[in-house]
Amino acid sequence: MVKYKSTEQVLKIIKDKSHIRNFGVIAHVDHGKTTMSDSLLADSGIISPSSAGTALALDYMKQEQERGITIVQANITLHYKQDDEEYVINMIDTPGHIDFSGRVIRSLRAIDGAVVVCDAVEGIMTQTETVTRMALEERVKPVLYINKIDRLIKELRLGPEEMQEKLASVVSNFNTLIDTYAEPEYREKWKVSIQDGSVSFGSAKDKWGINIDIMNKKGVSFKDVFTAYSDDGNVEALAEKVPLAEAVLGMVVKHHPPPHVAQKYRVPKIWKGDLDSDIGKAILNCDENGPAVMMIVNMQIDPAAGPVAIGRLFSGTLKDGQSVHLIDTHREGRIQSVNFFMGNQREMVGELSAGNIPALLGLGEARAGQTLSTVKGIQVFETIKYVSEPVVQMAIEPKHPKDLPRLIEILRRLTIEDPNLVIKINEESGETIMSGMGVLHLDIATNQIKEAGLELITSEPLINYRETVSQPTEPIMAKSPNRHNKIFMRVEPLEPEIAEMCRTGELGEMKDKKEMTKILREHGWDADVAKKVMRFDSRGNIMINGTKGVQFIDESSDSILSGFDDVMKEGPLAREQMRDCKFTFTHFVPHEDTAHRGLSQLGPASRRACLGSTLLANPVILEPILGIEVRVPQDLVGNVASVLSGKRGKVLDMQQKGILSIVIGEVPASETFDLSQVMRGQTAGKAIWNTFFKSWSPIPKSLVGELVPEIRKRKGLSPEPPKANEFIDKEEE
After folding, report:
1. H or E segment and range at residue 276
2. Average pLDDT in the 614-625 region?
3. Whole-number Å distance between alpha carbons of 337 and 673
4. Domain 262-373 belongs to what topology?
5. Weakest-pLDDT range from 103-107, 181-185, 643-647
């Protein structure tokens, strides 16, 4: 029976917010998210039941279909009927590969619940832990769907008792994640349980699913599952009796909150404005009659319609033709049309109220992460916290120079859709540098460019490095080019927790100064120093105004900060980004004449002061370190350890899960480009592994002398980095 509802029918259902659910599907790569999603679409009548499990309807990109992985998040609206009650369920299918985790975290801001999909054999994997942690940090309530039950029966040949023990172990491990990462208030109430139906089991490939509610309602047990997979069993009959969608969507309706309930506890975490204000109350209560406040979580470029801004509407109602403010960038825009994901198609609906996920046309300046409102100057939503940074880069250029304008336009479109893709022009070499989360991320991007019909020349992937200081310095002096202004500067390592708060946006230019002073004081900073922060740099650096009683300091601040900003973008050793540095501007001797202390004078002086102090502070190059988890037969553990050792990596822990050993270790990202070939060769293809960003670490001293000149040559610089005395001036005798 086709259940697909018309747009008008769906809009009637969502007038009652208690009948709305906003959830996402999150998982480790290849655990069956998109295959499961097919069954949900089939249940709503969006695709035919016969194609469910093979259609992979939400993997609509050509590369997704060819590679068998989800690359972009996909929005879809489902109609679900349970016990004569009709529900509208807005679902986002998210990528599982770590290179696309940025898309996952942005999607989490728009939803209230998550279905965590887990392979019954593989259990809780690294990315399962990562996405669950991200969900809990966003106060998104998880439920658990354990997929590929058929593997336990057909591959591992487990008996009923053994299988139940295995499943109980997966549930226990998942609850350990909740214990570890959930806030104290939610640790117990959000743990999943087989007994209350917040855990479902099934096979997405075979389209069946069960949980305790369905087992009681339909009289189905695990014995029936075993029978279905026996030689004379009937899996199709099992799927007909207990369809997967009923288990998963029933779990969503029962255990995930409607938007007006979720916002009461989610909003205080993700919006730091005054909750007692009219706007605060409207957002908190999901008030459709309040001012419109929306966070944009995703941008799509429609070839015909242009940019589409997709996000969660927390309060108010948005309508066609309405003027809105893009709060982060202080711009105004006009909504051309309000759209709604009806099935997997975007449809014009004219207006949409709070608690939903609109898709807006006409806002060409909008970007993911921004706050949109009908009220000017409101508090923006908290910055989205990414689990990684772009650590791999490559140089790209069009094969034919005449195609350069087209390349620029394609790159503009790609970076709008994917803010984790970073494009930079190397001023010395003129190269276009594209940075991403990993090799796969860059590979996908370059293929998208080629699919647009542009022939491309690319370099080999290279690692992004970072620069920092390892010791404090005394103040040094630098003069402006006209020699009429003196800037005194010192630097020291910045506390890691403060640096991280800069990177996550907890400390930043848009935040309340009193609140930021309070945070710094709580971390042991002197009250006077905490008040004098001039810049919270998003890379994890700080500039402090340590001057006292100096003239012209206020009007000169922007010029001085421009020099600081330049150095934070490109450090002195290898022109890589700086991080974890605390600069203090200690004294300023300006020229009395405004004409002699403009940007052209103070900017270079500040830059010289930052460079000189950095070079005195024992600067170091940091490289990205990846965590690695390898599943391998026990007799091959030594081979895996040997591979890691040969790549400057190390083994940190070993665990036993069934017949497999799990080797947990770390390895420099620069050593992983041929990891697949080496690992396959050493383990006869029997190892399964995944990597994830772990930390930045100083490169070994033995490699510095070779690496730094190599990076500098690649950037068109002289091999040797500059000396501190090239930037430090002395007082004239």
Report:
1. none
2. 96
3. 45
4. Elongation Factor Tu (Ef-tu); domain 3 (2.40.30)
5. 103-107
**Per-residue pLDDT at 50 exceeds 90:** no
Residue ranges in 75-125 assigned as alpha helix (H): 101-108
Rounded distance, CA 121 to CA 33, Å? 15
- Superfamily of segment(s) 392-464: Elongation Factor G (Translational Gtpase), domain 3 (3.30.70.870)
Residue 477: count of CB within 10 angstroms of its CB: 21
SS (H, E, C) 439-499: HHHHHHHHHHHHHCCCCEEECCCEECCEEEECCCCCCEEEECCCCCCEEEEEEEECCHHHH
Residue 580 region by backbone torsions, left for phi larger than 0, else alpha for psi between -120 and 50, else beta = left
Name the residue with tokens 């300023």. Answer: 588
Q: Classify domain 468-617+721-726 by CATH number.
A: 3.30.230.10
CATH number of the domain at 621-699, out of 3.30.470.20, 3.30.70.240, 2.60.40.10, 2.160.10.10?
Answer: 3.30.70.240
Query: Is the per-residue pLDDT at 77 higher than 90?
Result: no
For the domain bounded by 9-257, which CATH number is listed?
3.40.50.300
d(CA 698, CA 290): 51
Q: Which amino acid appears at position 21 of this protein?
A: R
Q: What is the pTM of this model?
A: 0.81
Going from N- to C-terminal start, the domains of the chain cover 9-257, 262-373, 392-464, 468-617+721-726, 621-699
Q: Are 456 and 396 in contact (CB under 8 A)?
A: yes
Cα 400 to Cα 142: distance, rounded to the nearest angstrom: 50
Record the tokens describing residue 722, joined without a space: 């500059």
On the question of pLDDT at 337 being above 90, the answer is yes
Mean pLDDT of 117-125: 89
